[in-house]
Amino acid sequence: MEVQIHALGFFIEFGILIPSSPIANLVYLQTEIAAIDNVKIYKYREIRQATDDFSGDNKIGEGGFGSVYKGRLKDGKLAAIKVLSAESRQGVREFLTEINVISEIQHENLVKLYGCCVEGNHRILVYNYLENNSLDKTLLAGGYSRSGIQFDWSTRANICVGVAKGLAFLHEEVRPHVIHRDIKASNILLDKDLSPKISDFGLARLMPANMTHVSTRVAGTIGYLAPEYAVRGQLTRKADIYSFGVLLMEIVSGRSNKNTRLPTEYQYLLERAWELYERNELVDLVDSGLNGVFDAEEACKYLKIGLLCTQDSPKLRPTMSTVVRLLTGEKDIDSKKITRPGLISDFMDLKVREAAETKSEEVNRQNYTNPSSSSNTSSGDNSNAYSSGGSSAYAGNTFSSTI
């Protein structure tokens, strides 16, 4: 049932007031943001000054959702200023979700939102500036040879532990709990010391303590989506843990979860990892770019933790606090408990479409195809990690099953 309120540009659907025009969107945004206590509201002229009137020299990224500029605020802080285009796929809901979630929490492994700007048709997010881009544009784009950053084993281990701590904080310490829904390499940013920061909370969902799951439309990125979430749309923290497991194996192996440049049997990272695990040859998956300078026992342990996190049954996956203890050696791995990873390709017909604005594979609104992400090549878009759902996929719960 739908009742239109034409004069104000809103309509009511199932008791919810929804903006349906640009003016209504602006009024709605300004009203909602004004009610958030911990968000600084910047004037548009302040943003223009900070970026030297959005100078091309200050642009550090661009995508279908808009552009990111490096800027210096009045207080002298450097900032990453996300200017969303009018054509951006990020809607009002995602914009407000990003602000609501990240403004209320602080952790050393989460990005910091300084504030936002909502004037006229301008929607702008202002974050702390992180010097070393995202994992997909550095480590997974060729490492030192492409980015000039040396990802030795110690650095990779610290990144893994940092991301795990940030996710454990969201899952277990924040009330209500936060499910990120889009943990992936492009959403892990690196500061000057290569400390990781989880970014992009546009798809995040809150999980009240008395609920076992949230039923929602499927959203996320192919290759990181937990199969049970993709199939049933029932979201739990275990979906994030699956995504983290994929990311963990990417960091250790130095490759994306799918690389079509490799022979067919090597293209899917999870399948390759399971095959090597069964042959007790997991060390062969460790990034050859380390030139053999790494702790083989620890590297294999990290890969096993990745397999624990991606097990087909969500109930078998560890909590993120347990993952932290496993990574840091406070808890031992019981290899007998590792079962085969859940692979969407085992039981689903998926249809992939190429998003022109991001050049990344996404989930179709109706169906899914084989789990994949980008290959070990970079699209050159450095801005998606600061976006609110800018490169993530959305879908309704309609699937073509092959079983």
From TrEMBL:
Composition-biased stretches (Low complexity): 367-391
GO cellular component: plasma membrane
Domain of life: Eukaryota
Region (Disordered): 358-391
A Gene Ontology BP annotation from the UniProt entry: response to insect
InterPro entries linked to this entry: CR_Ser/Thr_kinase, Kinase-like_dom_sf, Prot_kinase_dom, Protein_kinase_ATP_BS, Ser-Thr/Tyr_kinase_cat_dom, Ser/Thr_kinase_AS
Keyword Heme in annotation: no
Keyword set, alphabetical order: ATP-binding, Kinase, Nucleotide-binding, Serine/threonine-protein kinase, Transferase
PROSITE patterns: PROTEIN_KINASE_ATP, PROTEIN_KINASE_DOM, PROTEIN_KINASE_ST
Gene3D superfamilies reported in the protein's UniProt record: Phosphorylase Kinase, domain 1 (3.30.200.20), Transferase(Phosphotransferase) domain 1 (1.10.510.10)
Annotated ranges, domain Protein kinase: 54-333
Recorded family membership: Belongs to the protein kinase superfamily.
Protein name: Protein kinase domain-containing protein
Species of provenance: Arabis alpina
